[in-house]
Amino acid sequence: MTPLAMYYRELGYNVSGSDIAVFRMLNELQQKGIVVNRSQIESNINASIDEVVYSTAILGTNQELMKAKKLGIDCIDRISAIRKIVQSKKLISISGSYGKSTTTVYASSMFSTANCKPSWLIGADMLHYPCFKISDGEYFILETDESKPEYLQFSPEGLIVTNFGNDHLPNYGNKKINLINSLVNLMMKTKESVVIPYEMIKNYKELFNGIKYTTCGVENCDYQIQDLKTEFNGVNLFTKFHVKGKYSEFDSQIKMPSLRNVLDAVFAFALLESFAGQLKNPSQYFTNLPVIDRRFQFYPSKHKALIVDDEGDSPEVIKAVLADAKKYFPNKKLVVLLQPHRYSRLKNLFAEYIECVHKADELIILPVYSAGESDRKGVKSRVFFDSVNLSDGNKYLAKSLDHGVSIAKRFLDSDSIILALGPGDVWKACKELVIDEHWI
Is this model's pTM higher than 0.85 or not? Predict the structure, then answer.
């Protein structure tokens, strides 16, 4: 909702909104002249409002929404608002279960480097890269949410599907094949170019009959990643690699760790070349990529411990982040400050959550970040804590975020890497662990 609000404001509209939770981009909205109410009550709504846009997190019993409908104000959901915005552009859609925000950032950066002048909307929580842009170019790059089937009702010009995961399956009848079929249907409606990982062809080739696609990966694909090596320069992890592409071969690097981020970048590059043809000096499209907020993001500390913030919004991502930490810092104690996101997600992916934290040496489990859900929707942190069995590590159940931070501070003087994981407000923990507030 934040980039959408900023987009409307940039167009010249008076914009206001509400959120009862504290979120990272609050100040960004206020600095743009957007009023953010800290409560959701009837008095926030009046007859002078032309339109109310609401997220799927908002229930029909919400006071503001009920008042708006009573006054006859046009009320539309977020995805309908986005459809109106993109209808006059050539849509570049980035979808899949994980990696959408990262790939959308990379696509927006690469299309800009190629002077395509794209517009975009990115759903990620970012302070160091614009989450939206309005431009006069023909392309609109959109992070296309796959959490519900109706969100995939677009006919894009170009499409990247990053992967098929197990998240949001309750919205697909608890069957992964239903999610896959919805994403395949989006591929079939794509007018020009579809880019997918080669792993999809290995596992689901029969589903892609009649779809023209470009593959990326580490074997037998159109854009093959070779000689991958990640290093730490004291500030960031950066990854060097070689690409054997459709038109050329080249060496490059990105300021992010591991294969998964390189693959996301190669997705974006492959899609750009599908429209622009062979690009000169292809390496620059990767070296120019930004470091993305909350993606293994380092915070400086006066202590020996390395402090890292990551969105870690699903067990699959959490597992990958912990594996990266173990691989690149094998001699450090791995301290994980984990905030599960939503009671329903923890319930639906409970076995995956249990499995994904096994690499932790010290595991601090925070209360579930509800994102507006009632705790009756699923599993609480206590149940998760009781079910976790670390063979060589210790686990702690925090009563609050502050309590979790106080536990994490025990390891600041040791040779540790402390990971704050979760898409909720666990990012605040890093403020308590860094050397100076001005680094934030």
Answer: yes
